[in-house]
Amino acid sequence: MFDCDVLVIGGGIVGLSTAYALTRAAPGTRVTVLEKEPGPARHQTGRNSGVIHSGIYYRPGSLKARYAVRGAAEMVKFCAEYGLPHEVTGKLIVATDRSELPRLHALAQRGRENGIPVRELGPAQISEYEPQVRGLAAVHVGTTGICDYGAVAARLADASGAEVRYGARVTVVDRRPWGVAVRTAAGEVVRARVLVNCAGLHCDAVARLAGDDPGVRIVPFRGEYYELERPELVRGLVYPVPDPAFPFLGVHLTRGVDGGVHVGPNAVPALAREGYRWPVVRPRELAGTLAWPGAWRIARRHWRYGAGELHRSWSRRAFTEAVRRLLPEVTAEDLRPAPAGVRAQAVLRDGTLVDDFLIHEAARTVHVLNAPSPAATASLPIGREVARRALAQLGGEGG
């Protein structure tokens, strides 16, 4: 009657980590993953700067803090075990204005509370790490690294032992007392005892297909990147002091495993869930965003910040000026457009940006409703937690 025990929707790094965790925690569990794209990691997982985050930014005790700290160490170990490109580089968080100094010091304190090795630096010490970077003070974070998350996701798919079906877009979810039946756009039907929703940019839509009210709406924010034409200007990873009012880290510089340096991202509203360029507009998705009261409340609350991000999106000169705060040598000619990413940000009805990972359960289902950065870093612990909940539902069938 059942095609599998657990059906996972979404072949990004969280969905594949969940499949990997399921087959390791309960050998013999039949797991199927449905991914609408022709391969894994085509959206958030494969369109970021590849940073293994330390966990310094996140509130002590939060899922983000616990899972990022644990996940960073596990991600390095996973990459080493499977021969995937990675490096523990460390990074600098640099204050370029006196107003940022209290926030920088608070970040250092938060890092220590989260068990992260941090070192506070003055201007001369900044130059020891990054000769071309200028700042009043900095924090060096020793456990930050880089990897290729697309390669990690592909390895998870292979190592999990799950059946992974690509090109399988879910259109119908029929939940019954005995389990869940899912139909794909191609007309295939898959029956499972438990459904796990790791659909990322579409997770709230999948929750509604299952008959559940997610209580949040995914509001997509596009992050636009440039590639640095003179990568020799940057040795490693350089970040600004983030604005505590927003969950984005600001324009930063990241040397990747290929030796290139990513510059960005900014954060602008996307006009589609997969709106990687301004001309990409999906009217139904845009209407859904605009119909959500929380989207308008964000706009009213953060319009000044948003206006600055839009200006940097439309003006390379303005984007360059943001970069020059950290790296004065940079010119507009040094920046070459690179592929953008879209962040799936869960927003409550009152306009609150959900600040932590969010996992909801309902009958026969587990929904991952907020897993933006640092979810790739934390994907192995997140996958274990989601797997634990799915297996608990399997184990409770007799009750």
Describe the structure in brief:
32% of the residues lie in helices and 28% in strands. It is of the alpha+beta class. It folds into three domains: 4-45 and 150-215 and 355-395, FAD/NAD(P)-binding domain; 91-142, no CATH class; 221-229 and 243-348, no CATH class.
Walk me through what this model shows:
The longest helix has 20 residues, at 63-82. The mean pLDDT is 95. Helix 2 (63-82) packs across helix 11 (379-395). The chain folds into three domains: 4-45 and 150-215 and 355-395, 3-Layer(bba) Sandwich (FAD/NAD(P)-binding domain), CATH 3.50.50.60; 91-142, no CATH class; 221-229 and 243-348, no CATH class. The radius of gyration is 21 Å and the shape is globular. The chain is an alpha+beta fold. It contains eleven helices and 20 strands. The strands form three sheets. Strands 5, 6, 7, 13, 14, 15, 16, 17 and 18 form a nine-stranded mixed sheet that branches.
Shape descriptor: globular
What's the architecture of the largest domain, going by CATH?
3-Layer(bba) Sandwich
% residues in beta strands: 25-35%
Question: Could you tell me the mean pLDDT?
Answer: 95
The CATH superfamily of the largest domain is FAD/NAD(P)-binding domain
Q: Show unreliable segments.
A: none
CATH topology of the largest domain: FAD/NAD(P)-binding domain
What proportion of the residues is helical, as a percent range?
25-40%
- Strand tally, please? 20
Taking all Cα atoms into account, the compactness measure Rg is 21 Å
